Amino acid sequence: MSSMRKIRGFSDIMGAEARKFRLMEETASTVFSRYGYDELRLPLLERTELFARSIGSDTDVVQKEMFTFPDRKGRYVTLRPEATAGAVRAYIENKLYAGQNLTKLFTVGPMFRYERPQKGRQRQFHQVNAEAFGSASPLLDAEMVLMLWTYLSELGLTNLTLQINSLGCRECQPEYARRLQEYLRDTEADDFCSDCSERRERNPLRLLDCKQTQCQELMHEAPSMLDCLCENCRPHFNTVLDNLQRMGIDYEVNSRLVRGLDYYQRTTFEVMSGEIGAQSSVAGGGRYDDLVRQLGGPDHPAIGFACGMERLSLLLDDPAPAETDFYVAILDGEGLPEGMRVCEGLRRNGLRGEMSYETASLKSQIRHADRIGARYCIFLGREELESGRLTVRDMGSGEQYNREAEALPEFLGR
Ligand code: HAM
């Protein structure tokens, strides 16, 4: 029996949850297209190397969380743990930059990370992603955050906080790493968790987002990236903040916000909710100005974000299911073909409803119409077949009318 059960950390999305997912997807498409974004659908499976080279081999995602396996020819492939790496690959491979300065894409779908499942954390989860390639302008950073904020507001989510930071560029990041290493020199390797003691020489930035209390305490007094920003990154960050302020978006600057992936530079941001427990980050993103070049493409800067749909779903009210307009109740077996014709005529006029495939008593048919929430129940018995006028019962008021089939779409229309 257990082999017929779903795999731990994977879920079936149905009912109200599926309606929330549809709402998130449709709102993304509507809002993002206003900002010039086009949809991109990416493969779920990519070569493992793509993720190792982009997300970074020192990150938790690559070291511990990827679903990686050899294909039938022994080549290693990975179920995508995020969408940015695939989007960059697609941008380069399809030369999406040809003939335009700016390429704006959004993508929605499942991601896979082998993490410990808990509320708001699954092994197969879903993201709404937006990525923009080709501009380093701080206005694009501000617009990206604004678009994310607009998306969340249109979903009706308000009680959220935005944290923002700058991680500097390839000029100033090495200086910050050097200062961090100097700071770390006074600490004992054993005082850190095993990951951090391994990463502290190679990739000291990663120590800033370790979740272990002992590491967080040791990093408490660590130097701030914001003190190391170069003469280009500082005004860039200030312009991002000025524009957010001008657009009425509240933010908190958090100089510890390094995010868990290696490709980030300059602006990084995260949106949190205090209402969904420990996994409080509902969206995160930032610039990855060097990634396109590092993966063999042109030297094009880029920025993006991703929202976790399961986490947004925890904050959304259940959307009401679509209303059912009618139910065609067949009281006489000979009425079945006519019932189907009536039903189809109504559906072709945009009305929503069902029919009974078998005859049943009047009482049980009315009960069924009630159960599916139909506004009207249409009866087809011997009398109706002979007269050509159907009995229509308004399920709200209980009043009954007689109408010809051809008049029904208008009668039932809203
Ligand atoms: P991320 O911070 O790893 O960034 O993930 C973005 C969001 O996905 C998180 O804020 C969270 O809501 C959701 N998420 C992550 N892991 C899980 C999980 N195991 N279960 C449920 N939800 C989860 C990225 O993925 C970057 N690619 C974002 C980005 C796009 N940066 C630039 N462009």
Overview of the structural elements:
The chain folds into 2 domains: 15-172 and 229-315, BirA Bifunctional Protein, domain 2; 326-412, Rossmann fold. It is 36% helix and 22% strand. By secondary structure, it is an alpha+beta fold. Strand 9 (265-273) and strand 10 form a beta hairpin. The strands form 3 sheets. The chain has an 8-stranded mixed sheet with strand order 1-5-6-11-10-9-7-8, sandwiched between helices. A 5-stranded mixed sheet has the order 13-12-14-15-16, sandwiched between helices. Strands 2-4-3 form a 3-stranded antiparallel sheet. It is built from 15 helices and 16 strands. The structure holds histidyl-adenosine monophosphate (HAM). Histidyl-adenosine monophosphate is lined by residues 82-84, 113, 115, 120-122, 125, 127, 129, 131, 260, 281-286, 304-306, 308, 310-311.
Features of this protein?
2 domains, BirA Bifunctional Protein, domain 2, 15 helices, alpha+beta, binds histidyl-adenosine monophosphate, Rossmann fold, eight-stranded mixed beta sheet, elongated, 22% strand, five-stranded mixed beta sheet, 414 residues
CATH homologous superfamily grouping of the largest domain: Bira Bifunctional Protein, Domain 2
Described by strand count, sense and barrel closure, the largest sheet is: 8 strands, mixed
CATH topology of the largest domain: BirA Bifunctional Protein, domain 2
Q: Mean pLDDT, as a whole number?
A: 95
**Spatial strand order of the main sheet:** 1-5-6-11-10-9-7-8
Whole-number total of structural domains: 2
Return the structural class.
Answer: alpha+beta
Which stretches are low in confidence, meaning pLDDT under 50 for 5 or more residues running?
none
Number of separate strands: 16
